[in-house]
Amino acid sequence: MMVSPVLRCLSSPPFLFFCCLLLLQLPICRSIYCDEDDCYDLLGVSQSSNASEIKKAYYKLSLKYHPDKNPDPESRKLFVKIANAYEILKDEATREQYDYAIAHPEEVFYNTARYYHAYYGHKTDPRAVLVGLLLVVSALQYLNQWTRYTQAVTMVKKTPAYKNRLKALELERSGGVTNKKKGLKQIDKTVEEKLSNELELHIQGAEKPSLWNLIGVQFVLLPYTLGKLLIWRSCWFWRYQIKKLPYSWDDACYLTQSCLKITSDAWRNIDESTMSNLVQKRLWVKGNMESYVAEMRKESKRRR
């Protein structure tokens, strides 16, 4: 007679061994809470009892079996079980988990995991975790920015352009008089360090780190930033959408910068005549922007 694959699988030794193991593990769903006893039976209450009834039952039993009241050695063991049962049933979360374990004894691993998570899981305040995470991320961010900045400064100081600026600054500070032995080829290390501190280096992509740009500081200032942005948007809408006023110089610069998709530092480094010329083109108008792009393409091809 042919045996179906399903029956063959169910009657296989590995499956039968697993079933026996699972049956042996069924009592564990209770034992992890109150050993082999029932937490409700230990307190002499029913599963439908409320928190007040459970509390009264515990106080009554504690007066009877507390080691200070009852010297019997067995009472000490019983009192420990009663106290453990009360700790489980007085908390709504653990009581709910215990009731679930009673109703679903087959879910051994799930019930065990919930128990150990409730009793041995981390009790850290999420707010403390968030603050710690922001501090760590901010510290790493600042360290990364400072490393990039120092590396960029070191590379810039090796360029001829930087050395020429340093020599020009030395001539300016000394009134045009230099040491004839050293000339302009060599500069004292102390003087070089002093003069280099006077030179402001604006390195695109590796700006000097600032505490105000850190993630932690920005997160703390987020409500202020959002409020300021909302007020700015409201004023913009009222001034230019409702009242139809002409754009101010700063706002026109902002629109031009946004249309060209350049950073604030790059925009500030543009000379005033070029900046004024770009603003006058009114690039925030779609047609003007298209004409400007076409003009730049023609000029680029002409240079080639």
TrEMBL record:
Q: Which Pfam families match?
A: DnaJ
* Record keyword Transferase present: no
Query: What does the UniProt function comment say about this protein?
Result: May play a role in protein folding in the endoplasmic reticulum.
Instruction: Give the main localization category.
Output: endoplasmic reticulum
Q: What is this protein called?
A: (wild Malaysian banana) hypothetical protein
Source species of the chain: Musa acuminata subsp. malaccensis (Wild banana)
Q: Name one GO biological process term.
A: protein folding
Membrane topology per the record? Multi-pass membrane protein
Q: Which InterPro entries match?
A: DnaJ_domain (IPR001623), DnaJ_domain_CS (IPR018253), DNAJC25-like (IPR044632), J_dom_sf (IPR036869)
